[in-house]
Amino acid sequence: MKHSPPLAASLFFVFCTLLIISGLSCSNQPTEFKLEAKYGPVGKIIQYKLDSHRVGTAYNNGEVVEEFDVKVEGDITYTAQKVLPDGYTLVLEENEWSWDEAVDDTGKVKRVTKDYAYKYEVSTTSKMRSLKMLGKPSQTWEDYVRSFTEQGMPVFPEEKISAGYQWTQTVMVDLPDSQTYEAKAVYIVKGIAHKQGYECAIIEYQASLALPLFPNPSDSMSQSGVDWIEMNGIMYFAIEAGLAINIEERRRVVSERFHFKGGKQVERKNDFEAVISQNLVSLSST
């Protein structure tokens, strides 16, 4: 006498059939995996192309002075220079940013290009330390970049994880007005997908950051203020290769700056939305 299959087994068969029809599989996705940043070995070069589009308004003491729409192109290169005994890798990061600026009221524009370079040590969990700006260092800008990496860069869990895993990072930030702010970033692993030939973990994230700018006591014209940033995005992180393949991000930024001019405090504020796309373009070794 034939027996009907148990209900659970029948449902599983139907589920797997639907997955096969949709081009997926019940068995080829790893249930657990580890997120590791792999900047080494020495001589490894990782290159990205970044595109950013900012649209917003600038204010002086509450009055509108400019509405802007700026597209920025960036080339970012990471070069592994040394693997340290504790597992960290010494990395040289080089940035080249380009955008168009209006020269005068005639509508003529000029192409502006800026170069920035940093060295830092980064672990396999993507935790960074000892960041230094190269070239003509600006302590203010170096501190600003360091603050962003501490607040807005993911530090991966050390254990194996699976789809649905979530972690939260918080940092207490000292502000120029002697107050403190708790920056927070939440990361959720949504699943696994193939991207540009890599099997990637899909990581969604959202974060609230406060990037402070402290005045220079020796410069009466120096600025102080805070960049308040709300951002959310999605990252495709190649599990075996150990690097981001693609990042798509949206930001809302309120940038506050204060300085004294003629004995009076001047407030300048930029309020803008930004869409940022970063894509891997090259992976090689020297």
Structure description:
The protein has helices at residues 7-21, 139-152, and strands at residues 44-60, 63-83, 89-102, 109-122, 128-133, 166-174, 180-195, 198-213, 224-238, 243-261, 264-285. With 286 residues, the chain is mainly beta. Strand 10 (243-261) and strand 11 (264-285) form a beta hairpin.
Number of helix segments?
2
Radius of gyration: 23 Å
Secondary-structure-based class equals mainly beta
In helices, the fraction of residues equals 10-25%
Strand order of the largest sheet: 5-4-3-2-1-11-10-9-8-7-6
The arrangement of helices and strands along the chain is HEEEEEHEEEEEE
Chain-averaged pLDDT = 88
| Portion in beta strands | over 45%
Poorly predicted segments: 1-27
Termini separation comes to 70 Å
The count of β-strands is: 11
Outline the biggest β-sheet: 11 strands, antiparallel
Q: What is the overall silhouette?
A: globular
Helices and strands in order:
Layout: H1 7-21, E1 44-60, E2 63-83, E3 89-102, E4 109-122, E5 128-133, H2 139-152, E6 166-174, E7 180-195, E8 198-213, E9 224-238, E10 243-261, E11 264-285
Antiparallel strand pairs: 1-2, 1-11, 2-3, 3-4, 4-5, 6-7, 7-8, 8-9, 9-10, 10-11
Characterize this entry briefly.
The chain is mainly β and 286 residues long. It has helices spanning 7-21, 139-152, and strands spanning 44-60, 63-83, 89-102, 109-122, 128-133, 166-174, 180-195, 198-213, 224-238, 243-261, 264-285. The longest helix has 15 residues, at 7-21.
Features:
mainly beta; 10% helix; 11 strands; disordered N terminus; 286 residues; 2 helices
